[in-house]
TrEMBL record:
It comes from Arctia plantaginis (Wood tiger moth). GO terms for cellular component: cytosol; membrane. This is Guanine nucleotide exchange factor MSS4 homolog. The keyword Transport applies. One of its GO terms (biological process) is protein transport. SUPFAM superfamilies: Mss4-like. GO terms for molecular function: guanyl-nucleotide exchange factor activity; zinc ion binding. Pfam families: Mss4. Keywords: Guanine-nucleotide releasing factor, Protein transport, Transport.
Amino acid sequence: MSEVEHKEPPVANELKDYIEDGKNKMIVKCKFCGSKILDKNSATFITLQEQLPLMLQDSKQEGEVQSETITDFYHVENMFTFENIGFTHTVANYKYLSCADCDAGPVGYYNMDTKHSYVAISRIVQGDN
């Protein structure tokens, strides 16, 4: 049986300080209240293209959910890895993730098929404590 070579996705320059050996090098926190979402080295950096609803919706666009394309995520295989996260009701086979303390979100999504979670790096902050 031959070994499959594991290739790390390319890391954008602005993210190099936060990723080490393909994992989050620092604590992942809510950008609004600072609550801890993930411990250091608990999630894997991946790139994939996914649409997420905007965290702040324009009230002038009533009835229409505005979204954006996000490509940089932390992949979390087990939902119990999270320190502090909330899950919404299921929407089209996803549950959106939010901060359990201040309800800010979505900070990512949970895929009902794979049972894996994805935290959008652009929607969190990272630090040593």
